[in-house]
Design goal:
By secondary structure, this protein is mainly alpha-helical. It contains six helices and no strands. It has one domain.
């Protein structure tokens, strides 16, 4: 008699425990996707900020004409790039900024002018923020992909129909002349 009662209690408790664990795991996957989305939005905002400052500097007339055209063109292409070509466009902008602001002595002269110096400092800060935002985004993607690679998550499709997160891989090298 007690054996039957024990089974009537143990089986529902075990099933409830499994259900709670699966629900918790699905919630964790969902939170990881939210973290990736937030990190991606932050990265996009920092990329837009960097390209905006680059356009302002190119239009300010402080760069030589060839560098100004190169930086402005790269910044405009980075802002207008579709998602598929965004990494290449951002790498091109980074390379254009490295070429335009490679010499620390020239950058020091630009910083000497009050209005242009503020833009140069803003560009240096924006370049650093892009590096950090990309690192945080890629860390969030790595964690989400690791969680989604667990057998239980894959077998029971606990990620739903959410696409697999994708890391951003582009050259985010800060111009050496902007280093303070």
């Amino acid at each position: 008699m007690w054996e039957a009662v024990w089974w009537l209690v143990a089986v529902p408790v075990l099933l409830a425990g499994i259900g709670v664990y699966l629900s918790w795991t699905a919630g964790r996957v969902d939170r990881m996707h939210g973290r990736v989305d937030t990190a991606r939005a932050t990265l996009d905002a920092q990329l837009q900020r960097r390209s905006g400052i680059a356009i302002e500097l190119a239009a300010a007339g402080v760069l030589d004409p060839a560098s100004a055209v190169l930086v402005a063109d790269s910044a405009h292409r980075a802002r207008a790039a579709p998602e598929a070509g965004q990494e290449l466009a951002e790498s091109d902008l980074s390379q254009a900024l490295v070429a335009a602001f490679a010499d620390p002595e020239d950058v020091a002269e630009l910083r000497g002018d009050a209005s242009d110096g503020n833009l140069v400092d803003e560009l240096a800060a924006a370049s650093k923020r892009v590096q950090l935002a990309r690192r945080f985004h890629n860390d969030a993607v790595r964690a989400a992909r690791a969680l989604r690679s667990h057998r239980l998550v894959r077998w029971l499709k606990l990620a739903g129909r959410a696409p697999m997160p994708r890391a951003m891989d582009f050259d985010d090298t800060a111009p050496p002349g902007l280093a303070t």
